Amino acid sequence: MKNASKGFIPVMLMPFQNDGQIDYPALTGLTEMYLKSGAAGLFANCLSSEMFELSAEERLQSIHHIVDVVGGAVPVVATGTFAGPLNEQADFVKQVYEAGTEAVIVITGLLAAQEESDAVFNERFHRLLEWTSGVPLGFYECPEPYKRVLTAEQLGQFVATGRVTYHKDTCLDIEQIRAKLAATEGHKFGLYDAYMGHAVESLRAGAAGLSCIQGNFFPELIVWLCKNYDNASLQHEVAEVQEFFIKNMGVMHDVYPTVAKYSLKQRGVDISTFTRRKVGNFSGEVRAGVEALYGDYSTLSRSLELVA
C-alpha cells in the first residue's frame, strides 16, 4: 500500500439491519469510527464483512460506499476473487478496482483447491495478473474455504512482478513472517499481520502493520501499539497491551463477528448484532465475557491515557 508507515488496517465489519439488509447509515458511522481511531487504511469486503454471504451487487455497492465515505483520506483495499472460473474472477477484480480501491485482494484458498500444488496456484495467479493488467493486487490467507499459506519464495516472486503491494498474513508463525519480509525487502509492498499473539515481534521484524479482528473491538489500542511498539520508554506498557490481547484472544474469537458488534454497541456505536453468518450461540455466558472484556479494556485505556 502507498501508506508504508506502521499502521492498523481494520478488517471491516458489515452492519446489517435487523431484517438482514445492509445498514448503510451504520456503515458510514463504522467507517468514520475506524478513521477517527487512526487507521492507516481499510480492508473492505473481507471475511469480517461476511463477504461470502453478500451478493456480487452488495459487495460492489458496499465498497463504493466505503470509498466515498473515506474520500481519499486513507487507502481502501477489498477482496475481488470468489469461487468460479478464473476469467470471471478477473472480471470482478477489475470491477472492484474501478470502485476506487488502492489494491484488490486475492483469496489464496480460491485460486487452487487444497489438494492442488503450489505450481498450479502459481500458474493461475500469473494468468490472473495477465487478465487484470495494471491492477495492483494483494493476498489474503483467508481461513475459508481453507487456509492456503504462501511460502516466502512464492510471495517474493509475486511481489517482484511489481503488481503485488499488500499481503494480509495469517500463518501464525513469526519465523515465516521473517522469511516473507526478507523475500520481499526493497519492494513497494506491505505485509500486515493478522495474529496478535506475536504482534510486537512482527512489527519489530519489519511488518508494515497489523490487520486483525481485535481491531473491531478496540481499534485505537491497535493503533497505539503500531505507534509505540518500539518506544523504549513505553516497553512495560507495550508488553501489557500485547498480554491483554493474548489473554483475551478466546473471548474475541468466540461467536465472531457477533461479539465484536456487541462490544461496539457497548461503546455507543450504532450497530445491530445481526449477522448473516452462522457463527454459533451468542449465549449469556458469551455476552458476560464480552462485557468483562470491555471493563478490562476501560482500565487499560485509562492507564494509557486513551479515550475509551
From TrEMBL:
Q: Identify the InterPro entries for this entry.
A: Aldolase_TIM (IPR013785), DapA-like (IPR002220)
Say yes or no: keyword Lyase present. Answer: yes
Asked whether the keyword Lyase is assigned, the reply is yes
Annotated coiled-coil positions are none
Tell me one Pfam family matched here: DHDPS
**Keywords, A to Z?**
Lyase
Which family does the similarity line name? Answer: Belongs to the DapA family.
Full protein name: Dihydrodipicolinate synthase family protein
